[in-house]
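Protocol step 6 of 9: fold each sequence in the batch and record its structure tokens directly after the sequence line. For illustration, a two-sequence batch is reproduced in full.

Sequence one:
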Amino acid sequence: MDGVDLAIVGGGVIGALIAREAVAAFPGATVAVLERGLIGQGASSRSAGVHFPRGATERVRSMSEHSQRVWERLAAELGLPIRALDATVVAAGDADALSTTYLRLGDETAPADPARGWSAPPGARAWQLDGCHYADVRAVAGRVLAGLRDQVTVLEGTEVTGLSSDGEHHRLSLGQGRELLARRVVLAPGPWLAHPAWAELVAPLGLRVKKVVAAHLESSPAPDDPLTIFHDEDAFLLPLHERGHYLFSYTCDRWDVAPDDVDLVLEQSDLEDARAVLGRFAPGLVARCTSGRVFCDAYSPRREPVVAELRPGLVFAGAANGSGYRLAPAIAAETVAALDLTPTGPISQPLQRQS
């Protein structure tokens, strides 16, 4: 039977960052990433990939700050498809109140931008925000793991169909009829919480899956167009320069969906909801809101990412509440800190890495 020190179930951006963190923290440990599709193909492929230094709680603010430092370093080291951009926060209230949420809030600026088609709601003000970027998240996950292929076994098209433990080792049944023995396992399944192999283990965490919708606006961004965050609406307008259009993210309030059941085509009601929110501050852009992307994500009761040991040596990592990309480096650091991956000798026959 094949054996590894660590098996990571889920090849999205969180799983990729956990693999990188693990091999750095425990040189010599054998690590495998198991992904039932292709690396980055799940929720990561539909992510807006936007990063802004924000957190509603002290822990999330700390995670955001840590993740920003890591993304800046990895962007330079690996040539990741990350694009820095200016940003503006629009909100009612004052800078003192917002500074408890936004880590790099700058000077106050004009609360409207007629040239770009939006104006602030009555009573709102605007501030500059430093440290923002957006990324092609699927490509980021792929590139991170590409740089680890001499240290990490990557098994794509490999579904984990069963998961059991004898108290010392974990046995993973794989879709091709194979089995894998692991000293430690990390579950990073994104919104696939109800998978039969781990649904009962994850259930006590109280996590829920919510539909996520982002509309596409048929309007070409100028090279210097900023990210605009509408704080009170929990929405943002992001210029996707490489794709040649804007992305408008707003809060969709449809809960308890399953990722395999969500129709990945916008419903008319999705567009109507997006237009209703957009119309509050950018009525001139409503007619350009004609398409978009749909998926879902896992949310925690406290609206903080979850890193939790489900049984000895088995850790769940995720439920990032729509911020999986933004907080992935910090989630990875917390996850690896919860593991003891010190190699103690062969388990069985080590996996042969894919070339």
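Sequence two, same batch, same settings:
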Amino acid sequence: MTRPDPLTAPFGAFALSPMAETFRRLPMAMPGDALRRSAESVVRRALMSGGRDIADIEVFPGQFARVHLRDNRCEKRVFAGSKSWDSAERRAIRDAMATKPAGETFVFVDAGANAGLYTLSVLADAAAQSRPVKVIAVEPDVENRRRLEFNLDVSKASAVTVLPYALGAEEGEGAMVQSATNRGEVHVASGSETGDTIRLRPLKAALAEAGTGRVDVMKMDIEGFEAPVLNGFFAESPRSLWPTMILLETRHEAAITDGAAGLCLEHGYELAKQMRQNAVLVLPTGDPS
């Protein structure tokens, strides 16, 4: 049988058999994080053992994705672990959403959206809470953005604005450096690195283009470029535009006071939660705007 072309095949062309899909979902019903994660690992290895590298799945309730299992770590993890994948981070976003007054739109910025898994998670949570939502997904990499837009299309997501450039401290151009092993590690070049030329836009300009004057939560994962982007944003933007909550990767920092998280702390944010790889920072209630 000829293998479908993942670039053109409709969603469902890489669907699992009913038995394999039942097996994939088994860990979701297991109690306890440790047991669930162990089961996810077993299920993932078993379902990939025959050479499977792509699967069309319901990744979160009502949200669908074509996941690529060999070249993107987050897609591989969520394949059999959609309940455990970044569960503490996603819970923090979900809890922030739940505190909004009923009927008020929840505004989420997915900076470094990759294949759109955080965006899809937020859309699923908004549906579960009967909450209007506006998502701004920023993804400069051509292949990651293709996957993001495919997943949004098959999920019939209409509340998402996709911005096809990288965030920068100022308007200009940069280079996008690819990763040979993990598409989640593509990044804007620094130093002597070279890559494909991409557009850079400040975060303030990106938010204006997307038509929002406030942000409830921003997840920013732009592979080490967070500090210059945030430094420029804080310098030129009114506090009313600053996200109420920022989720940042901190696993490469020696201390929370280093890097982008430290910059947020300097500008009045407080550390609300520290996970193994990420930190949640929030503006205190009543912070002047």
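Proceed to step 7 once all outputs are recorded. Observation for sequence two: The chain has two domains: 18-81, 87-282.
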